[in-house]
Input
Amino acid sequence: DTEVTQTPKHLVMGMTNKKSLKCEQHMGHRAMYWYKQKAKKPPELMFVYSYEKLSINESVPSRFSPECPNSSLLNLHLHALQPEDSALYLCASSQEVRTGELFFGEGSRLTVL
Amino acid sequence: RKEVEQDPGPFNVPEGATVAFNCTYSNSASQSFFWYRQDCRKEPKLLMSVYSSGNEDGRFTAQLNRASQYISLLIRDSKLSDSATYLCVVTMDSNYQLIWGAGTKLIIKP
Output
């Protein structure tokens, strides 16, 4: 069982909808991440939070808006998405940034119609 | 040239056989190395870290060759449950950067 929990597991939304993806970890990790993964491709980094502060934004379009309410929670707010944004969105955590030992949630599979 | 390269496979291997695959990296400043496995439509899971001295965990052995800039993963006595995509990850200490290979697909056949 994964110790990083993501909800919802599946999400279908229209291009005008606003939705949020949620992620929670209780391992005391200080770094949390959002990744996007398309079929047959490796995960692609979107955002990194370190000690609840955004430390990396990989030039992600503003229709994706991350939020870290506290050290255990990470949200990804979605607005005006495009069909090409359909993908598996993975949350991960690690003890600190600068480590390659990440723990992933099961992901939220997003379909944009 | 990609920063981290893997043979995409698939590697079709009979159950019980030994299989090995490599991952090459282009930046000699790379510091840390990892293998992840990802089952179909699931999340990646850390399989093992790769130390300079190598690392063994049961049937799995990871090696680092800095001179030739590659890491390897050896799986002995392969099981059906080893079927997955194996992704290598390389990091640099100079900045936070986690570079993922595209993965090698392994299929273990009965």
About this structure: The CA atoms of residues 20 and 80 of chain A lie 12 Å apart. Chain A touches chain B at residues 2, 41-43, 45, 48, 55-56, 88, 90, 97-107 (CB under 8 Å).
